[in-house]
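Question: what's this shape?

___
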Amino acid sequence: MRAGQRSRLHSRSLAVLLVQSSILLSLCSRGQAVQAENVTVLEGGTAHISCRLQNYDGSIVVIQNPRRQTLFFNGTRALKDERFQMVLFTPRLVRITLSNVSVSDEGGYFCQLYTDSTHHQVATLSVVVPPEVPNVVVKSEAVEGGEVELTCVVSQQENGKTVSVSNTIRLPVERKDNGAALSCEASHPALVGQKRVRHYRLDVHFAPTVRISPPQGILREGDSLSLTCSVTGNPLPRDILWSRVNDTLPERAEISGTTLVMSRLSQTHNGTYLCQAHNNYGRAADQYTLLVYDRQRCGLLSEDEEGEGKEEYVEEDKVNKSKGEKQTGKEPIGTTSHPVISSSSLPWTPQGNLTPLILMLFILLCTLTLLILLFTLTLLILILLHTLMLLILLLTLTLLILILLLALTFLILFLLLTLTLLTLLQRVWSSDL
C-alpha cells in the first residue's frame, strides 16, 4: 500500500510541475517588449523616429527627447514643439517625425513602455551637416612676374565642433592672367553627389601702358586736333599728364579726361606731345609729333597737280616724323618760301650717274675675289708639284694685280666721296634759296 501511494503522489507532483512550467512559458511568450531604431538625417531634413512594440496590451507608451522631456504620452502631445508630429500609433509600431532638424536635436530618443516592469529602448539621432561654401584666402597680392598663393578653406560642424579643411596652391602670374577664373570645390557625403563651389578671379597688379591714337591725314593751319591717350594698368592710373617736349602746352589746348584738344592749329603748335601715366608698379609714356602745314602753300597746287602734290606732302611728312624726336615745338616745318626739290632731279642720284659707279665697284670687287681664289688654288697646285720657280713668278704677278686693283678701288672711293660732297653743297644751296 505504501509503495502504491508513494508512486501516485510522485505522479501527481510531476503533473503539477508540468502545469506550472506551461503557465510560466505562456506568460513569458506573452511578455511585452519595445525596440528602437537609430536614425541619421541631413541638417534641415526630417527625421523619422520609430518604436516597435511586441505583444502590446494597451500599456502606456512614452517618447522622450535627449533631455528627457516627454514628447508624447500614449499618442498625446506633451511638449509644445510643432516640429514633432505623431504620424503612427498602432499595437505594433509607434512613429513620430521631427522636421527642420538641427545639430542641437542630436542625441538619444527614449521609447518607454510602462508595464509591471518598465521597458525602454533608445533611438540615437545623428545629424549630418554639409560643409559651408569654401572661402578663398590670398596670402599676398599678385604682381606681374611674381607668384600668388591661394588657400581654399572649408568649415564644417562635427559633434558640436567646427572643423576646417584647407588646400593651398601657388601659381606664377603674368599680366594676361588678370581676371582669370578659378574655382574651389568641396565634396561631402551629406551633399549627395553635389559640391560646394566658390568662384574666384585673379587680381594681378601690373604697370600701366600708354598709347596715343594719332589722327589720319595731313593737318593744316586752321584745322582742329584731338589726341586720345589710351591707358591700361592694374590699378588703373588715376592721373594722366599731357605735356610738350621742351615747351609748354599751347594756350588754346584743352584737356578733357584722357583727350587733348587743340583748335585753330598753326605752325606754332608744332612739336612732340607726351602722354604719361603711372601707378604703384611703374610708369609709361607715349609721344606724338605734330606737323602743321601752311594752308597757303597747299593752295599753290593747281587742280591738275593736286594729286601729285599730296603725295609729295605725305613723303615730307614721313621724313619729318622720323626726325620728330630731334625737333622742338618752336621749329617751323615746311614753309612756303622754300621750294620742294625732288631727289629725281639730281644728277648723282640713282637716276643719274651713281648707279654705274656702284656697279663698276661691285664688278671690281668680284674680280678681286675671283683672282684671290685662283691664286689660292694655283698655290696649292704648285705646292703639290714642288715647283719653286713657278711659285715665285705667280706670287709676283698676283701682287702686281692686287696693287692695281687696290689703286682702282681707292680711285672709285675718292670719286664717290667727291660726289657726296657735291650733293651736300647742292642741298645747302637749295635751302638758302
User: Anything to note?
Assistant: The helical segments are 2-29, 295-299, 306-322, 354-385, 388-432. The chain has four domains: 33-128, 135-202, 213-326, 343-417. The mean pLDDT is 76. The chain is about 30% helix and 35% strand.
